[in-house]
Amino acid sequence: MPRGTAALIVAVGPRSPTGRPGPDRAGVRPRCEWRRRRQAVGACTPWSCVPCFIVSESVLSIPEEVAVASRALAVWQNRQVVGLLVRRNLKVKYQQSVLGYAWSMLEPLAMSGVYFLVFGVLLNADRGTPGGPDAPGGYMLFLICGLLPWLSFSASLGEAPRALISHSKLITTMKVPREIFPLAVVTTKFVEYLFTWPVLLLFVFVLGGRTWGIGLLVWLPLALTVQFLFTLGVTLLLSSVNVLLRDIERIVRILNRVLFYASAVVYPASLVLDSGAAPGWFKVVYQLNPLVGIFQMHQSVWFPVGTPSSIALGGAIGGAVIMFIIGYSTFRRLEMSVLKEL
């Protein structure tokens, strides 16, 4: 089988007197693999299917770029399904709740107060705040503008292993691309992050925070795009692997805690980069963590002095692209095995 191509194998049984493939030994007429796969993405029509009776056994190969483009088009055509799944997830989360949507603001408020007491007051982590302790907004604004996107990423990471398992009935009954289920999980958490923006704007107003044109026009859109792409790649990877190896769900719980302290969320990255105790190679590896650059971009919207370095920016953008490629490639390779398990 050629490498770098999406291979579609058409297996045909014995011919019947009418010239079409007859029943196999089990008495079941074999289905065209090409047609079955195209029906799965909603792109098969009677005249677009490769007839089973033309060949007895052959391999049809199409370029990988064409296969990826066709799947992306199928996902776009089923974008309404993604919207329905997102609305359902939001309704389920807040149903039978007295406060409802208010919880999306109360939770980050409570966590911000706890982390400000521990890191800002007791551990004096505010000494590395971009612009100094007297910067507009201070450490409290620095904390909240990094904590809100972290909560969104952490929630997506926690639900990523079950993105396919929790939708097993829909996956086996609906003829839609399977990518829409991890995409729906990431989109739901992204919408919840947007719901927390009133909290951020409240802190900006109360604490006297300021923004700048490049922060709103460059750093904010770039941070949202890179984080969404990186989170989607992680979700595609974990959702497919966890169906075959259920230990992934427990590993993710540990990884979630490690990444929180390995990224510049509750402490400024300058505390690590300006430390004389950390060797040079460690500082480079630290900046190559995509989450460090992502959260620095979020913080740069309100703190012009804290823009990410070229290494951190390259690590964030390059890491997001690489993670998406790895996640999507793994998802495609394991798709048939995942369907058998579901």
UniProtKB/TrEMBL annotation:
Keyword set, alphabetical order: Cell inner membrane, Cell membrane, Membrane, Transmembrane, Transmembrane helix, Transport
ABC transmembrane type-2 domain ranges (all copies): 99-334
Domain of life: Bacteria
UniProt keyword annotation of Phosphoprotein present: no
InterPro entries the record matches: ABC2_TM, ABC2_TM_bact-type
Localization of this protein: Cell inner membrane; Cell membrane
Topological relation to the membrane, as annotated: Multi-pass membrane protein
Segments crossing the lipid bilayer: 98-119, 139-160, 212-238, 258-282, 311-331
Family as reported in the entry's similarity comment: Belongs to the ABC-2 integral membrane protein family.
Record protein name field: Transport permease protein
Biological source species: Nocardiopsis gilva YIM 90087
